[in-house]
Amino acid sequence: MRARTCIMGLMMVTILATGCSTTNQSGMASAEQEYVPPTSIYNILDSTAMIYSDPSAGSPINDNPLRWLGFMLHPIGQALDYAVNRPIYKLASMFPYATGYTQEDAMVDAQRR
């Protein structure tokens, strides 16, 4: 029984090891493969990429119907921000120890327009 368990274990390890060693290449030489250019010539970490490119120019017109819903609901969200959220932040900043208002909260509140 022990020998059978060892043989089964070795077979499983062999199958798993050979399964991970395949390359999934179709057998084509690298010279025959078609070149696929990158979607952007700019590096994603390049801080000047947004200056030299216009992402909205590459997006399709009317790309998502929910975007129009967002445009219509934006003024309502702004009104709720001024009527509810900002007074709560102001009240919390008056009692920082009782409410847990931190320096990060103060920074976020200061960055609002």
Task: Let me know the average pLDDT.
Answer: 77
What proportion of the residues form beta strands (DSSP E)?
A: under 5%
Spatial shape = extended
N-C termini distance: 75 Å
Total of helices: 6
The helix-strand sequence is: HHHHHH
State the low-pLDDT regions, or none: none
How many DSSP-defined strands? Answer: 0
Major sheet size, sense and barrel closure: none
Helices and strands: which structural class? mainly alpha
* Proportion in helices: 55-70%
- The radius of gyration is 29 Å
Protein architecture, described:
- By secondary structure, the chain is mostly helical.
- It has a domain of 32 residues.
- It is built from six helices and no strands.
- The protein is extended.
- It starts with a helix and ends with a helix.
- The mean pLDDT is 77.
Quickly list its features.
113 residues, mainly alpha, 6 helices, extended
Question: What is the element layout, followed by pairings?
Answer:
Blueprint: H1 2-20, H2 49-52, H3 55-58, H4 65-94, H5 96-99, H6 103-110
